[in-house]
Amino acid sequence: MFTFPGQGSQTPNMLQDIPAYVERAAEVIGVMPRDDELALSSTLWTQIALFLKGTAVADEFMKQGVIPYFVAGHSIGAYSAAVTAGVISFEDALSMVWRRAQWMDRAYPAGYGMGIIMGLTKEEVERIVVHAHSDESPVYRSNVNGELQVALSGTVEGISRAFELAKQRGASKTIHLKVPVPSHSPLMEGLTSELSGMLERIPLQDAKMTYLLNHTGRPTRSRQKIAEDLAVNAVYPVCWHDMTTVSVESGADCFIEMPPGHTLTGLLKQAHPCLRGIAVDETGMEGALYLIRKWEAQAE
Questions:
Q1: What is the mean pLDDT of residues 126-140?
Q2: Which residue of 45, 102, 168, 240 is most buried, as measured by CB atoms within 10 A?
């Protein structure tokens, strides 16, 4: 299974080894993508960089004969997953990512973001959010990354208030993410209609491999269901824990995380410690290919 990370995993200079994809992107969006430290503090360039990096590395794996049975992207990573599965072209997906990132960047220029609460369940976090939320400083429960790792989205003030309550109730850790917009919350509702309109004009194909839906955690190869997922995944929480659990139940036993970062591999090992996971950022492409072929030979 190929997994594709979301916003927060970005690192400066992450595009330096994929110049051909950067040039292709510049032709589509009309400007050269950036990956310097200043640029990656913005949603606009971060989402473009993550899409390009994940798509490029997945392409290289498939050129080397490594074809996944499943693909799953976390938030913006869903677009790379859809390209890898053959549902949407690189150019059309990039145009959507560009529009998605522009909308987010303009809609929430300051004072909003996302955070993580560790050590509490989804239900416990939802009760905290009820007390922390206000009309002036909204905060929402968003992504469920693991049984005891739940994300928040909303105003920085609302998230900080929720963090205080979480610590009082036994949370082991709270983290403000490097995500300056309230993704995966009702504050993103205005984006869905725009992306849906774009998808109506884009040719799509059924997936060549099983795609895990962000907003439900369910598997599918249906182009209609994947299109819906791409349109709404900024509004609904990402059901990452469900996505990985369903893929394991369906037979996935080796997970390869596209760069940058290793967050998804860490979550996998917490939930399923006996499964094989590779973070390409840690092993490099050659190291990942060596491990994959070694495991394939052992299975024969």
A1: 98
A2: 240
